[in-house]
Amino acid sequence: MVSKAEELDEPTLTEAFYDEVDGEKTMLVSYSIPLIEDGKFIGVVDADLNLTSVQENFAKVSTPDNVYLLVDNTGNLVAHGMSPDSLMKNAFDLMKSPDEERKAAYGDAMYTVTRVSPTSGKDMVYIYHALKFPGTDSVWSIFSSTEKSKFVGTAHDMVIFAVVLAGIGIVVLAIILSVFVRRRLVVPIGDVSDTLARFADLDLDKDKGAKVREHQYRTDEIGSMVSSLARMANNLREMVGKINGVSQ
Fold this sequence. Notes:
Blueprint: H1 4-8, E1 12-13, E2 17-21, E3 24-37, E4 40-50, H2 52-61, E5 66-71, E6 77-80, H3 91-94, H4 99-104, E7 111-116, E8 123-132, E9 139-147, H5 153-200, H6 210-213, H7 221-247
Antiparallel strand pairs: 1-3, 2-3, 3-4, 5-6, 5-9, 7-8, 8-9
Helix pairs in contact: 5-7
């Protein structure tokens, strides 16, 4: 099966999905980075981000009169400040949003619309702010739902400020995840790949392994892999030395 990261040859962020983590149903999003060497695709590194804290934070700042919500690129609710039971349902379908609103939610400019809520029957003001994740083609949308009668003066400015601030926070979180994946996984795996390529060419020059040896003392799978490579290199050098001794 070909992944989207391989197809696009660039990092990708999936839509939200449920999976079991430590025995509990948990909402996740997967961030994938393709591994490219000499212009050739050699694999994909995936990291899953737990979205539980996002829902918790949206619940903290929402009130019955002013609710904050987050949808992924498909329109499914990733966070709902007042109704966690609505998660993973399509927000636009629930609100019976017209096509124009669905499209504008992911547009370049902040979008505001006032209309009657199909659930409460009240006049509501919806403010949408698109979230574009750097380095990917994924676009999510954060928005607020505020009763029109409460949407005046300072409240108006505070709602807009909160929407923008929350959007910035989520994008920063994605950037941090990207940097973490690159530093902790992509770079070390690239170094290991280079080392294996040298071994395949019977290049056992110890000085060329300095870069990959920096990862040797990590306590995760990368560290174990590099330690195994170090033992392999020592054994190969010893074997070559014995062969040379016998041949002389």
